[in-house]
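Practice problem. Given the sequence and the SMILES for flavin mononucleotide, write out the predicted structure.
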Amino acid sequence: MKILIVYATTEGQTRRIARFAASRLADRGHGAELLHVADAEDIDWAGVEAAVLAGSLHMGRVQDELAEFAAAHADELNARPTLFLQVSLAAAGTDEDELADIDRIAQAFCDRAGWRPGRIVQVAGAFRFTQYDFFRRWAMRHIAAQKGETIDPGKDREYTDWDALGALFDRWPEAAG
Ligand SMILES: Cc1cc2nc3c(=O)[nH]c(=O)nc-3n(C[C@H](O)[C@H](O)[C@H](O)COP(=O)(O)O)c2cc1C
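Answer key:
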């Protein structure tokens, strides 16, 4: 199948996730086209059989560019099997309120765009301390402290479960929900 993957990223983890998805789909013989949302223009939808959109949460919001893309192409997306990957740190935790929040945020993102993905998957992201500016370091220390975690500011920490993602893309889009 020809599968389009469009992603937005702020610190790079969603790019890694989108690349992983593309390579896993390609391993299974699919034709995966990976595009950063800024480059996702002039898409020949006639050749697209399924699509994945991936974006990450910052201050409770997914990137606006991805929201605009989803809204502009809701009709094309709704006519195919589609999957929304929402990357966050809340997805790495077990706090039920936070997990309910990220589900609500993802659903609102899709509703606002008029997009009805077959599946929404919450994916745990990463702390990228080595790439944060002063504000982000401060914000992330604060988030970590709230969770009772101590952060080593010199170190990145990845929570993405690559095995679970691999298992997802071993079945999707054939087992599209
Ligand atoms: C300034 C900032 C704000 C963030 N806000 C949230 C948030 O509201 N909820 C959450 O679960 N994760 C939050 N995160 C964590 C990111 O979603 C996580 O680091 C993710 O891996 C980022 O993906 P990206 O590298 O593709 O942008 C935040 C991270 C930063 C740096």
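Check your answer against the key. The longest helix spans residues 96-113.
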